[in-house]
Amino acid sequence: MGRTHNEQSEGFPGGATVGVVKESADDERRVALVPKLIPSLLAAGLDIVVEAGAGAGALIPDSAYVEAGARVGDPWSAEIVVKVAPPSDAEMAQLSAGQTLIGFLAPRTADNRIEALQRAGVQAFAVESIPRISRAQVMDALSSQANVAGYKAVLLAASESTRFFPMLTTAAGTVKPATVLVLGVGVAGLQALATAKRLGGRTTGYDVRPEVADQVRSVGAQWLDLGIDAAGAGGYARELTDAEKDEQQRALEEAIKGFDVVITTALVPGRPAPRLVTDAAVRGMKPGSVIVDLAGETGGNCELTEPGQNVVKHDVTICSPLNLPATMPEHASELYAKNIAALLELIVDANGCLAIDFDDAIIDGACVSRVAGAPGTEVSAP
């Protein structure tokens, strides 16, 4: 395993070792660190070891890491292991007691591995659990990857659409711009609205949190007001009451029928995605219309969604891509790596040794497996 805090203080050069693993999931092309960030981590006292081929999915060769100052080797023996997707069974078997794991760990899902990490004595930080406070914005991996998903969702919609997005005036006549409705205007939704606007679409945004109306207008979109307020804690929407769900569904069914493209991004942490687009709403859309459902991993916002598939129902194409950020691995990895680098710098001291302070709101919020006596925790509060 990597050097412990005590071993480093007894004369070992440098600080903690950070292992960058090659993602094992077939559809995961991102990597947790990119070469351009390695010099700053080395300057912070960290030692970086990268698994051979870790950056291949993002078209980053091993030589680029070596040139940046990292070394190619076994990342699973490092003191800190950083990755993107939650660990598989095979990856879990490579972790050892006393290690620290950082990545997307899906702590709110029923099949999460948090208890297994605790039993194994592995300290773990889930990037999706980082609190949404101003100081943590640079570490907000949910937002950085949602930007990618929102952008790519619009390109997917434009590709599947039977109509132009922009208004076109030609010798053969004028083509009206496509009308685009985005349901759920968090980071992904706002990026989708902005991207659709750049492509020339006539954009409208809706969310159950009316306070985001100004954000919708700030990207040149109109606000769809259904008179429902479901603002919740931490910048997320709360779950609607049954009466509110019925009212929202009725109003949305009528509104959706007037749009050429509907992009849905509505999620409630730890719960199935709310159903916003009913069979009746799809039936009422014009033939050739497109729905892109970004909530497929938690069941989908559309009643007819088949997660991971493109299907045609009532002459409407319904796309439910899974893990869209992985389809843009270069920039998605670069953004994610910045999040990881910022978190790494928070959990080490001036010498690059693990020094985890659980009195820090970011560290306390992100830690989903806390192990008593783990390396670096001796500096934290009891």
UniProtKB/TrEMBL annotation:
<keyword id="KW-0547">Nucleotide-binding</keyword>
<dbReference type="GO" id="GO:0008750">
    <property type="term" value="F:proton-translocating NAD(P)+ transhydrogenase activity"/>
</dbReference>
<dbReference type="GO" id="GO:0006740">
    <property type="term" value="P:NADPH regeneration"/>
</dbReference>
<feature type="domain" description="Alanine dehydrogenase/pyridine nucleotide transhydrogenase N-terminal">
    <location>
        <begin position="19"/>
        <end position="149"/>
    </location>
</feature>
<keyword id="KW-0520">NAD</keyword>
<feature type="domain" description="Alanine dehydrogenase/pyridine nucleotide transhydrogenase NAD(H)-binding">
    <location>
        <begin position="158"/>
        <end position="320"/>
    </location>
</feature>
<comment type="function">
    <text>The transhydrogenation between NADH and NADP is coupled to respiration and ATP hydrolysis and functions as a proton pump across the membrane.</text>
</comment>
<keyword id="KW-1278">Translocase</keyword>
<dbReference type="GO" id="GO:0005886">
    <property type="term" value="C:plasma membrane"/>
</dbReference>
<dbReference type="Pfam" id="PF05222">
    <property type="entry name" value="AlaDh_PNT_N"/>
</dbReference>
<dbReference type="InterPro" id="IPR007698">
    <property type="entry name" value="AlaDH/PNT_NAD(H)-bd"/>
</dbReference>
<dbReference type="InterPro" id="IPR036291">
    <property type="entry name" value="NAD(P)-bd_dom_sf"/>
</dbReference>
<dbReference type="GO" id="GO:0050661">
    <property type="term" value="F:NADP binding"/>
</dbReference>
<dbReference type="InterPro" id="IPR007886">
    <property type="entry name" value="AlaDH/PNT_N"/>
</dbReference>
<keyword id="KW-0521">NADP</keyword>
<protein>
    <recommendedName>
        <fullName>NAD(P) transhydrogenase subunit alpha part 1</fullName>
        <ecNumber>7.1.1.1</ecNumber>
    </recommendedName>
</protein>
<dbReference type="Pfam" id="PF01262">
    <property type="entry name" value="AlaDh_PNT_C"/>
</dbReference>
